Amino acid sequence: MRLLSARVRDYRRHRDLPISFDPRFTVIAGPNQSGKSTLAEALHRALFLPVKTGGELLKSMQSDPFVAEPEVEISFEAAGERWELRKRFAGTRGSASLRDSAGRSLQGEDAEERLAELIGTAAVARNRGAGDQLKERWGHLWVWQGSASSNPLGLNAASYDHDRLVERLQAGADLGVQSQLDLAVLDDIQTRWATVYTPGGANRAPQVKTGSPLHDARKAAIEAQDDLEAISDQIDQQAAAEQAFQEAVAQLQRVCQALPPLKVQRGELDQKLKRSQELEAAIAAEKPQWQGAQKERDDLEKDRTQLEELQKQVTTLEAAKAPDQERLGSLKQQLPDLVAARAHAQEQLEAQEQAVAKAIREATAIETLQKGLGQLQEQQRLEQQLAALAANQVRCDELQADIARLPALQAADVETLRRLETARRDARVRAEALSAGIEVIRAGRPVRVDGVELAAGVRQLLSEPATVQVGDDVELRLTPGDGSSAAEAATVLAEAEGKFQAELQRWQLTTVDEAATAERRRSDLLAEQQRLIEQHGGADPEALRLRLNALIQGADAQVALDAADAALQGEALESRLRALEQQLSEARQQRDGATKTEQQQQALVKQSSADLDAQTKLIATAEAGLRERENQSLEASTRIHALQERHGSLEALTVALAQARERCRELQSKLEGLESELAELGAESLKDRAAELDKEISTLESQEREATEARIRAESRLHGDGQVDLQAELEQKQAELESRLEEQERLEKEAGMLTLLRRLLEEEQNAMATQYTAPLTERIGRYLAQVFPETPQTSLSYDARSGFQELQWRLGNEAAFGFDVLSTGAREQFAAALRVTMAEVLAEAYDGTLPVLFDDAFANSDPERQAGVFRMLQQAADQGLQVILLTCDPERSRGIEGASHTSLGL
Known about the structure:
The chain is of the alpha+beta class. 66% of the residues lie in helices and 11% in strands. The chain contains 20 helices and 20 strands. Strands 2-1-4-5-6-7 form a 6-stranded antiparallel sheet, covered by helices on one side. A hairpin with a 3-residue loop joins strand 15 (793-799) and strand 16. Helix 8 (411-434) runs antiparallel to helix 9 (484-507) and helix 8 packs antiparallel against helix 10. The longest helix is centred in the middle third of the chain and has 193 residues, at 213-405. The two termini are 31 Å apart.
């Protein structure tokens, strides 16, 4: 099967998108959100989703805002013909058409059924699980974005065309049962087994198929067992109804015997309850009278007690009034002396305060003068320090200028020059020792050395072999030393001379002695400069000037000094400050003495004021106490007068109290008689017993009704069951159950036989599993060789019941790694090789080709691995597959040779 072209209309963001597919390799590139995944989904749903699908699936396909129903057209080749598929997704109004190259057209379900035959996979069911089922269709060929690293063998068998894959592997390897008889037996066993069991899967065992003879036999046996149990239940219910009738009759007899005596007891209790209610009413009427009499008695007793206490209180208050008046008079006589003492102390305090103020003024004047002279002394010190710093800085600048004129040599630099000079001298000695000297003393003919004429009196050293010519007819060959050693010594001498001269040139000197002299001079200057810096101790001249200016311009510097003090300097100023310090000490002593005397006088004033205040408070307290006693006496007299007006004299109040006590006793005796009679009746126990009897009577009456109803129900059931012979029915159902069980046993044995034969065939197929997997692993290895310099060794197992599993790879001598533990990028590359391998094997069943689509599938592969993956996909296209690559990175995919490139925009 090969895709030729497609057109997507009103499908999510695509209003009208035509697309053509290359027979070999198509690259569809576009940025994120350009609709690549939407295009892949539209093609996939056109192939596998029924057009009448609705709900959330349909909503997810519609454009926003909605314009028209989603529509997809696909042109493809399959079964040796060209087909045109058109689907419009509109729920129950959806439509599908399929037209072949001859112009014949199928519509609706006929078109969908024929499409399923052509692509080898049925459409998904229209139910709630359609979305999950849909993603798995062609799961080995259609690689969704984000699923490239998943194992296609992890899908269910139908999703990756398991049965057809096994069939192609068998056909390619000439495996399995091959004779016509064997094939007929195998097909018969598989067909008969399939009529009994569901296929099962990797994680679930086969189950008995609904509607199969074994399923129907089991169901019939269960139904016969249920019928037998139902008849048995009816017989048991009949016996239970007979027993219930007997129990109901016995219960009615018991109730009829127990109920009348209880009703007689209830009548007797009603009489007693009536008498107790009469007694309670009488007690309720008498008790308020008794309580009123008690209150009257208590009030009279309270008034008599209060009258007696008030009379005693008046007598006591009148007796205490005279001493209080005498004490108040004494306190008032002492008051004038205390006032005079406080006035005297206040006068002495004011005089002492004036003395303290005078002492403070004198001390302050001395302090002000001392401060002014201190500021003058600080100003002179700062000026002297600034002058010293200025002279020091001038000398430092002179030293710095002298240092700058000298080369920046150190002792190590001089030592380096001495070593270089020694190396040069040693090299010269060795070169001269190994060289030959030639000198012309006198000659009648020209003497030349290597063609250069040598003048008389000139000496030349030869470190290399040279030719000496005397005139034109004499030629000599001179070889100094042993030849090569002299040349090497000359080279060493030249190098030593060069290094020595370069170092002298670096310091702009001519001799080593000159360098040593310059270094000593520079060291002496630096030492003197450091001494000067340490002398001024890092003092900042600018900071000193700022302090001096602040001292001159500040408020403290404005202390007025007379001419004599302002002219003081040095020792004279210091002597003047010491004298002021002595005067200030004496003035402070006088000030402190005056202040101490002032504090003592303040304490006397405070004490005299406190004594006066205390005396005043005592007088006020005495006057308040005297007024309080007078008020208490007046209040008590007023209350006595009020009680006498209400009751008369104390004797009359005593007589009224005796009469009230007698009335209380009479009412209490009557009330106690009524309560005694009520207690003998036991009103509370009568009520409890009445409640118990009512409950017992109600229970018996309820039992009577229930027993009557139970008897009626039992009679009705017994009358109805008597019309059918339940025992005969029981025997008939037992016979039916035995027949059903025999049929179930026969079918169970037959199904077991089929399962055994099928298992034996599967075991035979599993024994040849490596011959199934070898073609796959070989092809996977060839594809992975395009990605990895060292081709991984892949392995795969096969089980006829569970399918292909245990996908692994091994690099070199390393341990084998399962697919799931590999890195995400490695899984992407391994899964891609497996997918194109499966497609290559399956292609023979689909006219020699199948489309394989990858949607942004290699995001976790580095650029080098991606290039290898592209080579792998090119190899798959060379093997006849149709590769469709959707990518958001057009630059990397542009190098795929022979691919057709299409771009999608935003």
